[in-house]
Amino acid sequence: MKQSGFFDVEERLARLSGLGDQLEAFSRTVDFEAFRPDLDKALAYSDGSKGGRPPFDPVLMFKILVIQTLNNLSDERTEYLINDRLSFMRFLGLGLSDRVPDAKTVWLFRERLTQAGAIE
């Protein structure tokens, strides 16, 4: 097995693009930033003055819910597949060394949106 090189990830992503990565096409079609104002309003995050770990970006978390819906995934399976699949990471804007939300975080995000009436 050859040693990983600096450009291996970029080459793999280019290959995925060439094979017709549906999430990449979806990301070009949908402006997910357009959902940010509604997400911010529904979530009403604090200003962070009380400390604690900052929340994950709401658009990132919303895109995770989109992945779940498109693929009919549980929270646990979603966490695993985000860590495993380059196509999921690219769609979410995550790098290999970025922190990935765990299953509980995904569940809590969905619950907050549900309680706010933003989703059903």
Can you characterise this structure?
- The longest helix has 14 residues, at 58-71.
- The mean pLDDT is 89.
- The protein has helices spanning 8-18, 22-29, 36-43, 58-71, 75-84, 86-92, 103-115.
- It has one domain (8-115).
- It is mostly helical and 120 residues long.
Labels describing this entry:
globular; 120 residues; 7 helices; mainly alpha; single chain
Reconstruct the topology from this structure.
Layout: H1 8-18, H2 22-29, H3 36-43, H4 58-71, H5 75-84, H6 86-92, H7 103-115
Record field, number of beta strands: 0
Number of helices: 7
Portion in strands: under 5%
Radius of gyration from the alpha-carbon trace, in angstroms: 16 Å
Terminal CA distance reads 48 Å
Overall domain count: 1
Write a compact overview of the structure shown.
With 120 residues, the protein is an all-alpha fold.
